[in-house]
Amino acid sequence: MRCVFSKGNKMSQRELEIEIAPDGKVTVRTIGIKGKECLDVAQALIQGIGTEEHREMTTEFYESEHDVTQHQNLHDRYQ
Amino acid sequence: MSTVLVVAPIVIANWSVISAAVIAGVGSVGYAVVSGVETPGRTTNRQVGNRAEIEVENSEILATGVIPGQEIVVQKDGVTVRFSRDRQGALKVCVEGEGLSKSQLKQVGEDLIGVVTQQYAYHRIMTEMKNQNMTVVHEEVDADRTVRIRVKNI
After folding, report:
1. How many A-B residue pairs are in contact by the CB < 8 A criterion?
2. Taking an 8 Å Cβ-Cβ cutoff, which residues of chain B contact chain A?
3. 10 Å Cβ neighbour count for B89?
4. Which single residue of A15, A19, B82, B87 could bond B94 by disulfide (Cβ 3.0 to 4.6 Å)?
5. pTM: predicted TM-score of the whole model, two decimal places
6. Residue A30: its chain B contacts at CB < 8 A?
């Protein structure tokens, strides 16, 4: 049941938005979590609650933490 | 935003958890609990009028701790709603009231099922959130009763 957040100091960046509709339907959105981990974090929170009806991956899902670091390095270089 | 998951809850719990969700949920929309336990030999303000019965498909009330005939009875504006466990173990909602058509009573029942399911989902998420060492940083309820919660890891 327990989801392990294993990336040390990046834990503070992990946020979720949860919406519970009047009929009980639950929507979970991850914020600022890159790669497959965002799916793991969302699934860990809602596991066992019910059946998944919809899943949507945005560009951040396909963006690895490595890519993010490279982008940051390039950004810093041209500052 | 990087992942969006939508989940339809399945209410699986014992009677005490269901009771808590029913009492908290219907109380938030103005219903008063008139009876927490009713056995088959006892009646509580049985009304004459139309009646609608709904079996909640995505539900399972565990048999442990359920007394046969046990139900929660709530009332508001002359409408009586009974929550019980049917023979298959699903949550059953029976709505009775004078001056309302069967379809209106069914709508009342379905709205209340939504309220109870929402309460159940809220309770499950709050429990799981604590297990995940997460905390609520913001919570609000919209006019249409949608609950919005923002959580982050501690």
Report:
1. 156
2. 1-10, 58, 114-118, 120-122, 124-125, 128-129, 131-134, 137, 144-153
3. 13
4. B82
5. 0.80
6. 1-3
ipTM of the complex: 0.85
Which tens digit of pLDDT belongs to each residue from B9-49? 999 999 999 999 999 999 999 999 997 654 444 444 555 57
- Ramachandran angles phi, psi of A22, nearest 5°: -60, -25
Which residues fall within 8 angstroms of residue B80, CB to CB, at 6 or more apart?
Answer: B34, B45, B47, B73, B74, B95, B96, B97
d(CA A20, CA B40): 36
Tally of residues, chain A: 79
Measured between beta carbons, the chain B residues lying within 8 angstroms of A6 are none
